[in-house]
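Hello again, I could really use a second opinion on something today. I've been staring at a protein lately and its backbone has me curious. Can you walk me through what the tokens say about the fold? Take your time with it, there's no hurry, and the full record follows here:
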Amino acid sequence: MIVNKPNKKKKGSPYTVFYVIMAIIFSVIIGKLLYLQVYKHQDYKEKADTGSTRFISEKAPRGIIYDDDGNVLATNKQNYVLTYMQTDEADKAFYSSMNKIFNILKENNEKFLDDLLLKINSSGKFYYNFKTSDTEAQKLVELRFKKDRGLNDLVQNTLYKDHNGDFTDDELNAINDALLSISIEDTFYYLVDTYNLYEMLLPEGYTSEEKKALAKSFVDPTIDQNSKNRDYVKESVDYGKRVTDELLKKYSLEEIRNYMVIRDAIKMKSYEGYKAVTIANNIKRDTAFIIYQKLSDLPGVDVSLEPVRYYPFGNLASHILGYVSSITGPEETVYELMGYDASTDLVGASGIESAFEDQLKGNKGGTTVKVNSQGRNTETLFELESYPGNNVHLTIDKDVQYAAQEALKDTLEKIRLEQPSATRGAVIAIEVKTGRVLAMASYPDYDPNDFAIPGELSDEKYEQYFSPDLTKFGTEHIQKTHATKSLDELFPLNEEGVREDFYDIYPRAMFNYATLGKIPPGSVFKPLTSIAGLMEGVISTTEYMNDTSGWWERDGFGAENFGHVANGPTDLRLALQKSSNYFYYETGYRLWDQNGRDVEALDSLAKYVWRFGLGVDPNSPQAANPTTGIEIEEGFGQTYNFTSWKNKIIETPMYSLVEALQKGVSTSGNFIFIPLDISKSEEDSEELKNAKEAIKNKIKEILEKVGTDEQMNDYTEVANLMLPEVKTFMKESVKYKQAVADYESKTGKKADLDDQADSVANAIAEYIISEQTTQITSFAQIVMDAIGQGMNNLTPLQIANYVATLANGGERHKVMLVDKITSPTGEVIQEFNPEVVDNLEIPSEYLQAVKEGMRRVNTSSENGMAYQSFGEGKFPIAVCGKTGTADFATDEIYIEQGRKAYGNYISFAPMDDPEIAIFSTLYDGNKGSDGAPIHKAIYEAFFKEELLKLDPSYASKSSSFVKYVQNAPKDNNTTNGMETTTNESDNTNITE
């Protein structure tokens, strides 16, 4: 019998669900791993590589600068550098690491690199560390500083929040004005906010929640985040101020700024990717070892060696060599396009360093490495070797340069005992037959080593170089010189409330007076006038002029000898010896008279002067870029000539006309009228402004025609031309209408405005024709030019080149400072050969007569220091010279400003076969002959071997020979010009 049993359900495993869940989990994990390691492998590999890869830049040594004998004037030395590499771990420990670093640096009397523009002085006051005294340049630097740090965006969002497209010029100007209006204190608070310096208050090992809470605690709860009129700048500044107030409970203002400096450097570097930031430059080897031993506790910090610029002789030839400086302001973009790192690279800022930057700069190298979480190098990926720059060999002689520089300084110090304002000067020595500069000194000078390491310029030197205390200086200047003008008159306050050196009195160490200063030559110009007069035949080597009164007069124009001394019968030689103004007034007059007495004749002297390099024909192609040929920055002055003089008269403010019209009487007194004021005023209506401008433009147009066929000489014609604008002026000027009312009230007469307009128009016509046109066409200027006065304004370099040209018989060379350029291994890359630019070919008879006169200058006992230096039996080599006391103002102005005339002196030697020519100028020296000891020191250095051959005991007879020649710095050319100077043990590897 079959029995049917019910089916039993098969029991499932209790682990089945677990297995299923595990299978799903592992499938997801495996899938994710496959996704990450296979599908996304390349993406994450690139991210990992990027995060751990760093480029460690290696600076290239700049090329060496040598003197003519192979002495090293500028080189490089190895320098221990402290750097910071940003990583996640380093960033977390940033404040603790920096605190340790700052303490180590302080304990070892080291400075950290501080090139942040915004600084704090010893009194706790903020200031911008500008490297220029030019206010416009300062504004550009300040704008770049603020824009680079993000203030530009805040200002734009505040002023033009919903702006689309490009900004207009007016909008950009408004943004710039707003940026400049942000005070330096508010800029500091903004940076405190931007760099999250509130983190300084966090404890070690803080959590993200603690960080968020602390950051939020400084936010102003009253700020409406949705407001359309939010002031983003104010919000940031207020936040930063609240943070600063809290920080000041624990840190000093200087300590807060120290952290800011490093944060700022990191921020600026971040624009270039992951690069190391320099914390400190030029630290001592012992300090470097201390830090190296603690690197395990300083994540991101490292020590390395870098080359730094070094000038072995300090101040020697500083204005020739120049200096290196950080890239700042508007220059940054230009240099970055040229491949420079604007945040770390130094470039030549002046002198040879700047002029030959492209040769001197080396090719930077570096290493691409992988780093660990502490910023330590774990693997080198790629190395690029750095390569030094090329070397520049100068024409100057170290010993001659030393003699020139030291003698100039000592001479000025001596003169200051009597002339307290004699604080500046320059001297230049040129090789006669080549145009090579043997020495060039400007005083005051500076030490270019001060600028070699960014951030190490002291506050005192910064102030001296770039931001002098003109209140203090001006007060002392007035006390010492008894100047009659007040402090506010001599050093007026500008719109920003900063004093300006309006009359150029402060001695500027960074200014090269030798190549940039422009001065009147005075009587040192007379040898050149002699040559022009002889070659034109208006004087001869044998003619005597009878100077019986010391007063010269021709055609209604007269002038006196210096001191009104009568020299009696005077020939060319005596005229040079006595510096007879009478003789040279007459020579200048004859040049004009013989050549036609017209405007072209006014250039009779200038045509010769230009050939000596003193100015250039303004109508020639050379006028666009006049130069002596020197390789460094120079000014270029001009001698008197008709065109330049006319342009100067035209561009000169019409003070005398404005004053006459304000007084109501013409300059001659021929016309009297109701006073009127044609000077500019902000209150003028548009019509009145146009009328005033039209009067001035018409005057200018009429004067521009002087000397041409269109010259206007008819008073009535000129008056009628001016009449419409004069009437418009009278109609539109409220001030004039009031003057008319006052006149009518006072006199009881009705003013005839047509008659008034005629009188004013005639007064203007008289001013144009009788005063301005006559001044432009007068022969008086060529007469004054003949003695080196008048509009002559020339650089010392130009005058030195003129002296060399004269000594060379009229052959003028291009002025040279550079002899050659060589590679780092010594191969000549480029040579600079002497170049003749003009040759007047002065007849030997004329040249000899001038030389004899100039020799007499030095042998005449009445010529003070010139005689003491080069008189008979006082110097073995015959030296030709000429003194010059060059006036730049009237006696009244000298007294007002506490100033004196320039003391100029020229010379060359030997007399019969000149090798070297020199010019010196002593600002406020008042006596040219006082420069003679400077020339003597230069000759002693240049002719030292010959002098000792002529007289073996010469040194015992000359204190200057001992001081400036025997005691000159020792040579450093021991390796034939291939030596580079280094610090002791600087080449030692710190890890050894």
